[in-house]
């Protein structure tokens, strides 16, 4: 294993048991795995579901985050991507590179002096922010190989969605996909990496192995929210859904499932937006292309109890579904009194936050760009990640929209704002850019390695952290 990270390997049954019966082999494997559960043992078959693990009563303890912390995707529940306390950074230089045991698709977190990153090998790492030294790592399962899935473009498939840190318990939560297409929510102690919560969190409809958990996790009212979409290629039987579990790991799992026959994935990397006491999610294309509306190609408002309370869909939702030109590719933007939504078609819709409008109920619309990932915003200005660059868009108080500068990139990642600059990756070129927020002019750029799709940087103090296909790269602007 490269670097300082120790990779724990699955335990398998030795050839000495070759003459034993299938039942004995399985029993032996289960006994071995029972002693090595934290190391992610696999029998090579559809393993039994681990017993749920939750925090004991009265075990919750406050562990507040600091100003330089980044505890969730795009730093806050609104997914603004804005870090107001970030100092102006000087010339960037490589600080360190941590080569881990798999690709880091989600944003790293920064919490109380620790960088947390989760890999597609189902391992969560805690790293020292100044050196990248591994403080602890926890392998929570054996990831699902691509060969066992009908389609997809991540191999193996482990932890894809960005984790979230809960200050009330001091736990980092992540969803791991493991062999057999199972999905488990784990809660790890930030200080030690010990596994305190373990719950099965399957999507309630369809084939579990056809669901991919790519959206970032969210916290609301003492619960973790987990959104599901499908694999790249839309194979198999899946339906978009959101499930939730108490941060203690106890009690029932609640859920909302799209009322479509198939598809309607909730997959945009930013995950659910926490808008006061509700969630906003964007929904992809469904199988229906006409007739009765099936809830897809939409923006949904969900209550904390996961009941749909409001929605918007374009009037030509059927055509969008037929052309795979839906709204599900970008996380909704809650800005002022409005919700901005841009999808694959390139049309920007402005909605009233108090009433999303139903079918065709937008306040106004304008042509923007095909958008993917998550936007960043501050004040009335939104930076939209287009398929071929970054677009500045202004939402005015009177409900009008204007487009500003546009910087060309091969494939724009999800931007963030801080230190007087807009930071965005070109994930196809493996480059991080710092742009002037008023003009889009490139102030500086630096190669950061092989990046996953929609890669988004993290700002903390005088450092920038980026998840890569081999681990985490850190840059210093001190």
Distance between the termini: 31 Å
Structural class comes to mainly beta
The average pLDDT is 90
Given the structure, what is the number of helices? Answer: 2
How much β-strand is present in the residues?
A: 35-45%
Q: Biggest sheet, in brief?
A: 5 strands, mixed
The helix content is under 10%
Computed CA radius of gyration, to the nearest angstrom: 22 Å
Write down the overall geometry. globular
Spatial sequence of strands, sheet with the most strands: 1-29-30-31-32
Query: Could you state the oligomeric state of the chains shown?
Result: single chain
> Low-confidence parts, pLDDT < 50 over ≥5 residues?
1-45
Work out the number of β strands: 35
Structural summary, described in words:
With 478 residues, the chain is mainly beta. Helices cover 4% and strands 37% of the residues. It has helices at residues 22-35, 317-323, and strands at 82-83, 93-99, 109-111, 114-118, 123-127, 134-139, 164-166, 171-178, 182-189, 195-200, 211-212, 218-220, 223-230, 241-246, 254-257, 273-275, 278-283, 298-303, 308-313, 333-335, 338-342, 347-352, 358-359, 364-367, 376-378, 381-386, 389-395, 401-408, 416-418, 421-426, 431-435, 442-447, 458-460, 463-467, 471-476. The chain is globular and about 55 Å long. Residues 1-45 have low confidence and may be disordered.
Task: Give the arrangement of secondary structure elements.
Layout (H helix, E strand, L loop, with lengths): L21 H14 L46 E2 L9 E7 L9 E3 L2 E5 L4 E5 L6 E6 L24 E3 L4 E8 L3 E8 L5 E6 L10 E2 L5 E3 L2 E8 L10 E6 L7 E4 L15 E3 L2 E6 L14 E6 L4 E6 L3 H7 L9 E3 L2 E5 L4 E6 L5 E2 L4 E4 L8 E3 L2 E6 L2 E7 L5 E8 L7 E3 L2 E6 L4 E5 L6 E6 L10 E3 L2 E5 L3 E6 L2
Parallel strand pairs: 1-29, 19-23
Antiparallel strand pairs: 2-35, 3-4, 4-5, 5-6, 7-8, 8-9, 9-10, 11-13, 12-13, 13-14, 14-15, 16-17, 17-18, 18-19, 20-21, 21-22, 22-24, 25-26, 26-27, 27-28, 29-30, 30-31, 31-32, 33-34, 34-35
